[in-house]
Design a protein that fits this description.
- Among the domains are: 106 residues, Ubiquitin-like (UB roll), CATH 3.10.20; 68 residues, Outer membrane usher protein (Immunoglobulin-like, Sandwich); 92 residues, Sandwich (Immunoglobulin-like), CATH 2.60.40.2610; 77 residues, Sandwich (Immunoglobulin-like), CATH 2.60.40.2070.
- It contains five helices and 54 strands.
- It is mainly beta.
Length: 779
């Protein structure tokens, strides 16, 4: 039976051009249909698809003489470049298949016009691949903190010496005031008190600024010496904003002709993955890279075809991102006899420092210092030299006491995976003076030349090798030149070996250290042997078990044997609880033992409560659960304790200005206790504390059975409203659950097809659990 002719389901206009398109040369595919082949002459409405990306825009397309005429404005909206000369008819339509560099296809089945344009016509796409945290403005509650460290020691034939170190802080919205010092009793110094630092700080996170007043250390570039002063300082401090990346990061770019997936591999590890539309793209702010490396950008289209591009890069944190600046302004009196005298200050000085990132490869620096008859100015910069590393250089000039002098600094740094190299050289005139050498009573020794070179290389399974060179020329023309060579390796999983040697090039003196470390399930054992040219050898064996992170007992046992001396033993014990840390031990030779004991911790006064804790070095948080005790608290997904009988828990660590996550676990609470918020994030200001409140509430709840006036249960689904504003619905058997009740309550029910009815009842607010009430007649 002969096959029937194929039926044409489209209009005659579409059928007219099918047969030519079906013709194909022997062994080949049919050519793509032209406009006349596919649809003859006329106007069809088609979706415009540019480089495989659907626009969702349906426009009229005129098929004329085998070409596709489309409105020029619609094409320009989709980034197809159309000039006025491309629309000679003056009606705004253009034959898109005649445009230079444009290819057109007609998808008859899906009514789409497929337009392929050069990828560089399309808009650029920028993807921020950085993992910088979202900004959370830091907070601080009002309170007081006292850190303390009590230490006592008793040596043979000597009296007991004790010292008490304290650090007091007052903090709140106005900033933080802190003061540290130490009381000493016994020993050679008798009884005394030494004040270390008293300071006020206030931060401005929005502008990344820090105000300081009191005892402080001046800030400046790496080629100047900071000094202690009693005065004021206004500076930029990028540690206030962890979300800011201060140094320039590379941008990895490419082009996609069709919608694609882009994978970025940095040094062999996947760093970013994005889906891109057709056109140019750039991946910026790739995090956690430093030094030299290699990136591979892999573009994969929908058909699985891949194009890989390798891009070398070099990143240095010593550079500032373009447009980013750093500064510090300070003025005050030089501090004298720090750690010895309480209030000893010298001449008044001032300093100013400024640095700015001009480009991705250049950061400039400037410095000025003044004091009495001293004036110093300096300028420098940091330059990235392609993929070869970073060079820094600076020159300063000073005038003081009628003499002028200069100082020159130059350095080089290079780092890549498995290799680092750094070198720094400083040369100064004898008449050069800066703030560190201005005060005659605190003058540092003058060193005309200083050179430091250090490098390391990874040897794979053979460990790592380190080499260092240190050279200093003193004012009396003497010099010291030292060379250090070290090697460390881990031949087995829990075993480490470390070898180090030093040699004085000028005198020929040398020293060497060999160390073996064996890690155990609880602690580690260290065996050390050291020897030098003019000193007898020493052999040490020590076992150490650190204190567990959640508290407990730590131990240290040591034995030392000297070739020219008495053997010594050492026994240390450390116990850390939630509120305090105790330590004690004995060390020394037979018959000449020294005993020591220590107690350290912190006392916090906040929000009407007093808390005891281990030493608090930075920011902290007090979690308040509104008086509910025994609620577990988690910090960054780790349980750190439970609230006390007052519903509070002090968490003594929280990174300053870092938005840490705190959670409470409500699973152990009774059903009548509500916890609308179980997770919060907070960033705490440096050196301050914050009271984090979780609105845990005791609900007065009841399960009420409702009947109508005839004693029948109200039908399921009946709306019920309380006079407290709570709305619920009746369930099976006339039961309705209410959780916001008062001692006296009125309910109003709205049965379908019947008038509303009310019922009144009382509840004991002190009842633990869900009360059962009823049945009650609703009238």
């Amino acid at each position: 039976m002969p096959r029937p002719a194929p039926a044409c389901l489209a209009s005659a206009l579409l059928c007219a051009g099918l047969s030519p398109a079906l013709a194909a040369p022997p062994g080949g595919l049919p050519p793509p249909p032209r406009a006349a082949d596919a649809a003859g002459e006329g106007v069809v409405h088609l979706e415009l698809v540019v480089n495989g990306l659907g626009s969702g825009r349906v426009v009229p397309v005129e098929l004329r003489d085998g070409h596709y005429l489309v409105d020029a404005a619609a094409l320009r909206a989709l980034h197809v470049r159309v000039d006025a000369a491309d629309a000679p008819d003056g009606d705004g339509r253009v034959a898109v298949d005649r445009l230079p560099g444009v290819e057109v296809g007609y998808d008859v089945a899906n009514l789409r016009l497929l337009v392929q344009v050069p990828a560089d016509w399309l808009p650029a796409q920028h993807f921020d691949s950085g993992a910088a945290p979202a900004r959370h403005p830091s907070r601080a509650s009002r309170g007081m903190l006292l850190n303390y460290d009590l230490y006592a020691t008793r040596a043979p034939h000597a009296s007991t010496a004790t010292s008490l170190w304290t650090d007091v802080r007052l903090f709140g919205d106005a900033g933080t005031v802190s003061s540290s010092g130490a009381w000493r009793h016994g020993g050679a110094g008798g009884r005394s008190f030494v004040r270390y630092d008293t300071r006020w700080q206030r931060v401005d996170e929005a502008r990344v600024r820090l105000w300081e007043a009191g005892d402080l250390i001046t800030r400046g570039p790496t080629w100047t010496s900071p000094v202690r002063i009693g005065g004021v300082q206004f500076s930029r401090d990028f540690s206030l904003r962890p979300d800011i990346v201060t140094y320039p990061l590379p941008a990895f770019s490419g082009q996609a002709g069709v919608p694609s997936a882009v994978d970025l591999f940095v040094n062999g590890s996947l760093a970013a993955r994005e889906r891109v539309d057709p056109g140019p793209f750039a991946l910026t702010d790739v995090p956690f890279i430093n030094g030299a490396g290699e990136a591979v950008v892999v573009v994969t289209d929908a058909l699985g075809r891949q194009v890989a591009t390798t891009v070398p890069f070099y990143v240095s944190s010593r550079l500032l991102a373009p447009g980013l600046s750093d500064f510090a302004l300070a003025a005050g009196a030089l501090r004298r006899e720090y750690g010895v005298e309480d209030f000893a200050y010298g001449p008044v000085v001032a300093s100013a420092a400024y640095s700015r990132g001009l480009t991705d490869v250049l950061t400039v620096e400037a410095l000025g210092e003044a004091a009495g008859d001293l004036a110093r100015v300096g300028a420098g910069g940091v330059v990235r030299i392609g993929m070869l590393g970073v060079v820094n250089a600076a020159y300063s000039r000073s005038a003081s006491r009628g003499r002028t002098g200069g100082q020159f600094d130059v350095g080089y740094q290079y780092a890549r995976r498995g290799f680092t190299l750094s070198a720094q050289h400083q040369r100064g005139d004898r008449d050069f003076v800066d703030l560190a050498r201005y005060d005659p009573r605190t003058t540092l020794p003058f060193r005309p030349r200083t050179t430091v070179v250090a490098g390391s290389v990874a040897l794979g399974r053979w460990g790592s090798l380190g080499l260092g060179h240190f050279a200093v020329e003193n004012a009396d023309d003497t010099r010291t030149r030292l060379v250090n060579l070290s090697w460390s390796v881990s031949p087995w999983r829990d075993v480490g070996v470390y070898l180090s040697g030093n040699r004085d090039i000028d005198t020929g003196d040398w020293s060497a250290v060999a160390q073996l470390v064996v890690s155990l399930q609880q602690g580690n054992i260290t065996a050390t042997h050291d020897r030098s040219r003019d000193r007898a050898g020493a052999h040490r064996l020590r076992y150490t078990r650190p204190v567990p992170t959640d508290g407990g007992l730590g131990l240290g046992l040591g034995y030392s044997r000297f070739d020219a001396g008495d053997d010594q033993v050492q026994l240390d014990a450390l116990w850390r609880g939630r509120h305090v840390q105790f330590g004690g031990g004995v060390r020394g030779a037979a018959g000449a033992h020294t005993l020591w004991a220590n107690a350290a911790g912190a006392i916090v006064r906040m929000d009407g409560g007093t808390f005891l804790s281990n030493r608090i070095s930075d920011a902290f948080v007090v979690v308040d659960t509104n008086g509910f005790p025994s609620i577990p608290v988690r910090y960054e997904n780790v349980t750190v304790g439970t609230t006390d009988r007052h519903g509070r828990l002090l968490v003594p660590w929280s990174g300053a200005h870092y938005a840490a996550k705190f959670e409470i676990d409500p699973l152990q609470l009774p059903a009548h206790v509500h916890t609308p918020v179980v997770e919060q994030r907070v960033a705490v200001r440096r050196g301050s504390g914050y009271v984090m409140r979780f609105p845990v509430e005791r609900a007065v709840a009841a399960l009420v059975t409702l009947h109508d006036a005839q004693g029948a249960v109200l039908p399921p689904g009946t709306p019920v409203t309380s006079d407290q504003g709570e709305t619920a619905h009746v369930g099976w058997d006339g039961l309705v659950y209410l959780s916001a009740l008062a001692p006296d309550n009125t309910l109003t029910a709205h049965p379908a097809g019947r008038p509303p009815c009310t019922v009144r009842f009382a509840v004991d607010p002190a009842y633990e659990g869900v009360a059962r009430i009823g049945p009650l007649a609703c009238r």
